[in-house]
Structure formats: C-alpha cells, structure tokens
From TrEMBL:
<feature type="transmembrane region" description="Helical">
    <location>
        <begin position="108"/>
        <end position="130"/>
    </location>
</feature>
<keyword id="KW-0472">Membrane</keyword>
<dbReference type="Pfam" id="PF08205">
    <property type="entry name" value="C2-set_2"/>
</dbReference>
<protein>
    <submittedName>
        <fullName>Advanced glycosylation end-product specific receptor</fullName>
    </submittedName>
</protein>
<keyword id="KW-0812">Transmembrane</keyword>
<keyword id="KW-1133">Transmembrane helix</keyword>
<dbReference type="InterPro" id="IPR013162">
    <property type="entry name" value="CD80_C2-set"/>
</dbReference>
<dbReference type="InterPro" id="IPR013783">
    <property type="entry name" value="Ig-like_fold"/>
</dbReference>
<feature type="region of interest" description="Disordered">
    <location>
        <begin position="135"/>
        <end position="171"/>
    </location>
</feature>
<dbReference type="InterPro" id="IPR036179">
    <property type="entry name" value="Ig-like_dom_sf"/>
</dbReference>
<keyword id="KW-1015">Disulfide bond</keyword>
<feature type="domain" description="CD80-like immunoglobulin C2-set">
    <location>
        <begin position="5"/>
        <end position="85"/>
    </location>
</feature>
Amino acid sequence: MAGVPNKVGTCVSEGGYPAGTLNWHSDGKPLIPDGKGVSVEEETRRHPKTGLFTLQSELTVIPAQGGAPHPTFSCSFSPGLPRRRALHTAPIQLTVWGSLEGQGLGTVALALGILGGLGIAALLIGAIMWRRQRHRREERKAPENQEEEEERAELNQSVEPEAAESSAGGP
C-alpha cells in the first residue's frame, strides 16, 4: 500500500567466515536505506564455539504514491573474501496499491462479497421453501389418492356381489 510501511522480506546468511555483508537491491540497483522510505534492520551473531557468523537483514519500504507499480527487490551476500563473487537471491516482485485505489477496490470487493452472500442465502431459502411446498403438495395428494382407492375398492366390492348374484341366479 502506497504511503504505508511494508516488510519486503528478511535475508539471512548462516555459518560464514568472515562475516561478509548483506545488501538489498531495488530493480537491480543497490538500495540505500534513507530512514524515510527505505529502512533496513541488521543483526550479526557469532557462534561462541565455531566462530561462524549469522547475518540477518530485514527490509521495510514505504512505496511512494505514483511510484513504480511493480518494484522488484533482491538481496545479495558478499563473502568479504578477495575474488569471491556475491551471491544473489531470487527477486521479490511487489504490487503497489495506491492508498485511494486500494480503499476503493476493498470497498468494491466487500460490497460484491456481501451481495454474493445475500444471493447465496436467497437461493438456499428459495430451495428450502420450494422443497417444503413440494412436500406439502405430496401430503395433500396422498390422502386424495387413498380416498380414490377406497372408493374404487367399494365400487369393486359392490360389483362383485352383483356378479355373484347374476351368475347364481342363471342356472
């Protein structure tokens, strides 16, 4: 976020001798801490038994409004020995959001999230109500079918005795 301190990362070198140095780079150029937009906290520890050094460097930046939208940072370790080349980390690319743009996008995202949640809730409620109505219709249909079946059974019973009487009276 532009205008807000952002921790970019921590660079560590363990078990070196001599201690060497850690340096930060922005878009491939050496980054010099100015205490305003760029700050680096460094710590050097020496192991009491082995005498080897551990270096740690933490980079924090405050991106400027209207600055580079995708700054790239990296760290390098210089061993401190003659004819030894520096080792470079893979670059870290950030996306800088403008303070007003970031808030606007956050508000839009929040509104869309709320609307999406309400839409899902409406669908669930609609599905529950539809199932209840369908269940009630089935309950209504069941007694009607039972009555129809009972009426048919009564009709069949009344037809059977007549058939029995007509066949009994025939010979």
